Amino acid sequence: MKARFSPVVLSVALSFFAYFSQVAFACKELDKLAPDSITSLSSIEKLKQKMMASEPDVCKPYLDDLDIVKVKYIGFDEKEYTGIIIIHRELSQDILEIFQTLFKYQFPIGNIHPSGSKSNTTIAYNCRAVTNQAAMLSQHSYGRAIDINPLINPYVKDEQVIPKEGTPYIDRNQDYKGMITRESLVYELFVRRGWDWGGDWYDVGDYQHFEKRANGEKRNPFGYD
User: Fold this and answer.
1) Is there a smaller number of Cβ atoms within 10 Å at the N or the C end of the chain?
2) DSSP per residue over 82-144, as a string?
3) Total domain count for the chain?
4) Can you give the C-alpha Rg of the chain in angstroms?
5) Is residue 140 part of a domain?
6) 1 falls within a domain
């Protein structure tokens, strides 16, 4: 699925959204959800209204496709937490099962929150452009991608590292806590369900990123046209 827009218009719209996203997700109804649950985003009227008011117009058509998955996870401090993952409804069961297994085996996760306000926040739905492709919506905008422990698993392309704080972790031959590799449990859980890992691409190392596109579509592993 490719959606192209004016880079200027899309950039302004997404900057506006980044400012308001934390307000939209500061919703008490999310706190009331039980762990290990899946809830349609549209069923939480207050949240839906806030997102309709704050989202860029380019992403509003996809809101009705989203589910809220509340998961349990183990932090880097070895304590138990709960977090909210907003994901496409076709993928919500995958996400619930994967994070139940990660919790069982105590795979550490820095933070899970739908606003993605911290550098090591695990986040799925996020209305934004593809990195370095300003006119194209990311799969995150459709709720079809998730980034896990982005600080430990940064996006790396040539000299570019996102987030910059992830620079100490670009050596993928090291064994970092919370790291994703082809030998890791995280990789196995996603790939066996048909997801693609950004660490398998040739033009970029997007080590935090898993995606599962609509209708079996695949990103060209050698890059965009």
Assistant:
1) C
2) EEEEEEETTTHHHHHHHHHHHHHTT-B-SEE-TT--STTEEB-----EETTEEEEE-GGGGT-
3) 1
4) 16
5) yes
6) no
